[in-house]
Amino acid sequence: MNKGKPFKLPKGSRGRAKNCISIASEHVEKALQYSYRDQRNKKK
After folding, report:
1. Under a CB-based contact definition with an 8 Å cutoff, are residues 19 and 8 in contact?
2. Number of helical H runs and strand E runs in the chain
3. Which positions, given as ranges, span the membrane (predicted)?
């Protein structure tokens, strides 16, 4: 992930997940995985 993206995506996150690059990138990665999974489940 590039440096700008993890700071745009976790806007509503709590704590360091929104302003610390290493934690934010992990948080965003996991959030995108959940999002993809739940979109698939919603279509079933």
Report:
1. no
2. 2, 0
3. none
**The pLDDT of residue 8 is above 80:** no
Burial of 27 (0-12, 13-18, 19+ CB in 10 A): buried
Q: Which residue has the higher pLDDT, 37 or 8?
A: 37
Contact 2, 8 (CB under 8 A): no
Residue type, 18: K
DSSP sequence for 20-40: -HHHHHHHHHHHHHHHHHHHH
Phi, psi of 27 (to 5 degrees): -60, -45
